[in-house]
Amino acid sequence: MHYTHHVRRAIGAASIAALIAISQAASAGTQGAARYRIEPRADRGPALKDRYNDDQLALLEKLNRSDRAHLARLQQLTVPVVWSTDELDYSPLPQRYEPGIEWPTYVVVYLPGRGIVASGDLVGAPVPFAFGSHPGSWVKVLDSLIALKPRVIVLGHGPVQRDLGYVRSVRDWLARIVRETSAARARGDSLSAVLKKVTLDDVRVSVTKDEKWLNFLFRSFFVRPAVQAAYGT
Fold it and tell me: CA 39, 118, 212, 230: dihedral to nearest 10 degrees?
């Protein structure tokens, strides 16, 4: 709890280094590679004020969540490769995805110098909720998050994760639901038949420990709505 408090406090006080907004009105497409680099203090050249103009220094302050007087003291400095006035240009996450996700907006905060990602409701534990979701797009979003290789993931609900194990599991469950549901629909199976076949019961017990309430959440709040969404796409 103490560790979680400090991580959340650090993120809450920070300027957003990476932001992803997913909405029903969003157009398809993903952003390219992140246009910044991490510059270790040991490799730093001349003084920052001699290397960058005032606008660039102002952006460095935002990207590194540090005022100008302390930028040079940072052990790692996030430095743009291509300078832009739009901070979202430096996000390694896709900014927008295809329509179909019912939740109005997601925000993911990425602090590259610290290896911290705050995933928001993209990932919840011990059971993710899939009401109104678009499982195919959800998998792509999680792939983007995993590609960041964060050391710490602050979930929208649940304990702080110190590795990608749980995020990878959620990603794999969703991918499996999409794959098995699509195959069953292609065979002409009805939704009711698919709901009986695509259950993920072989992994459920490892998640819920067969606890009654968690079993209900896993089946009714995650698997069932995810299968319904995948069947309808």
Answer: -100
Same domain, 110 and 197: yes
Distances (CA, A) of 225 to 5, 34, 52, 192: 32, 33, 51, 12
Angle at 154 between CA 116 and CA 101, to 5 degrees: 105
For residue 118, which amino acid is it? A
Global confidence as pTM? 0.62
* Helices 135-147/224-232 angle, 10° precision: 110
Beta bridge partners of 40: 76
Q: If we measure between CA atoms, which residue out of 161, 163, 79 comes closest to residue 124?
A: 161
92 preceded by a cis bond (ω within 30 of 0): no
- Residues 12, 79, single domain; the answer is no
Residue 225 belongs to domain spanning: 2-20+92-232
The tens digit of pLDDT for each residue in 24-71 reads: 223 223 334 446 788 888 677 788 889 999 988 988 888 888 888 888
Q: Kindly state whether residues 191 and 221 are assigned to the same domain.
A: yes
Task: Report the domain count for the chain.
Answer: 2
Q: Which contiguous run of DSSP H or E holds residue 40?
A: strand 36-40
Q: Are residues 144 and 178 in the same domain?
A: yes
pLDDT for position 90: 66
Q: For residue 112, how many other CB atoms are within 10 A of its CB?
A: 21
Q: Do residues 96 and 81 both lie within one domain?
A: no
How much is the pLDDT for 18? 38
Confidence of residue 105 (pLDDT cuts 50, 70, 90): low
- The C-alpha angle 114, 116, 117, rounded to 5 degrees, equals 150
Pair of tokens at residue 35: 């246009």
Q: Are 107 and 211 in a shared domain?
A: yes
